[in-house]
Design goal:
Elements lengths: L1 H23 L9 H136 L2 H20 L1
Amino acid sequence: MRTRYRFAILSIVTALLCPALVHAAEGTPEEGTWSALLFYIVNFLLFVWIIKRFGGPQIAAFFKTRAKSIRETASRAEQAFKDAQSLAAKAADQLKTLEAEKSRIVTEMADETGYQLKQIAEMTRETVTRVERDGAVSVAAAREAGQRRLRESLASAAGRLAREMVQKNFEGADQTRLLDRFVTKLGEEARS
């Protein structure tokens, strides 16, 4: 029943549009008869009936398949869009996380750098103190060694001078006197 109404509506619309197409064509308008118009309308209606009768199921199947394909494509596109939005949200979250991680790492590195600089400064101060102390000890040791060598050379020079003086001025009485003093000193030491 519905197909009859559709066919009737389609026939009427076609019949109404055909004269408008004739008037819209360029060129000189030619007078036509109503019978020619009726022939064209019947011819068109016959063409539509043949297409509907023999090609209708294939055309309907084509449009059903095409509509189903379009709905599936739209559904996949919508799902892909949702997935893309989800991925974009995850990427934004990861970007925020990365920014926070970057800030944390920068802070940690700044703290570690400050700590290392303090350690280096402290080690430098300790090294300077140790170098100064070692320098002072080295200077004192060098001074003491110099003084000892000076005393040794003075003692050696004094011994040489004393030997020379003893050899020149030493007599037998001096030897006796020295031996007596030595024996006396030994006696005193033994008593104490």
